[in-house]
Amino acid sequence: MTVQDPDVVATSGAESAAVDSPRAGQLGLAVRTPAEGVTVVGVSGEVDMLTAPQLRAESLRHLDAGSTLVLDLSGVSFLGSAGLAVLVEASQHAKRRDAEFRVVAVARAVTRPLAATGLGGVFSVFESVEQALEFHESR
After folding, report:
1. Taking a C-beta distance cutoff of 8 angstroms, is the pair 33, 58 a contact?
2. Residue 60 backbone dihedrals phi, psi, to 5 degrees
3. Using the 8-state DSSP alphabet, how is residue 51 labeled?
4. Exposure pattern of 40-79 as b/e (b: 16+ CB <10 Å)?
5. Cα separation values, 113 from 17, 77, 84, 118, 120, Å
6. pLDDT for 41-93, tens place per residue?
7. Which residues neighbour 132 within 8 Å (Cβ) at sequence distance 6 or greater?
């Protein structure tokens, strides 16, 4: 019995479908700097053991002393344990560098693992990037 992923469009070659599939280790990252010392990293796709190292590198790169990193996970369709580990490491890294770390989580694929592990209370979690940025400005 073969199970077809509904997100994969049938093509003439199996390799092409595997490369286009979000499960092929591809992670979308969009970085912007809305204010001095504030970086927003928009993440899309699945954060698993294949893509977590990419997210880790990008997150830690933007956590300088006194900076603020907003990790926008609103485009994430899966957050595995490796992704949760990246969030924990980024939070700890931020504390050591006197930086601010905020997470935007709206999709159940992200909020559920955060709630199940109790990590939702460890990070500053917001429902939108705008809320996370407003919180930054009010401090």
Report:
1. no
2. -65, -30
3. T
4. bbbbbbbbbeebbebbbebbbebbeeebbbbbbbebbebb
5. 28, 12, 8, 8, 9
6. 999 999 999 999 999 999 999 998 889 999 999 999 999 999 999 999 999 99
7. 70, 102, 104, 124, 126
Q: How far apart are CA 133 and CA 69, in angstroms?
A: 10
Mean pLDDT of 23-40: 87
Beta-sheet pairing, 38-47 with 27-35: antiparallel
User: Which tokens belong to 26?
Assistant: 């591809």
Amino acid letter, 67: S
Place of tokens 């955060």: 114
Question: Nearest 5 degrees, angle CA 63-CA 66-CA 72?
Answer: 45
| Token couple for 64 | 């300088």
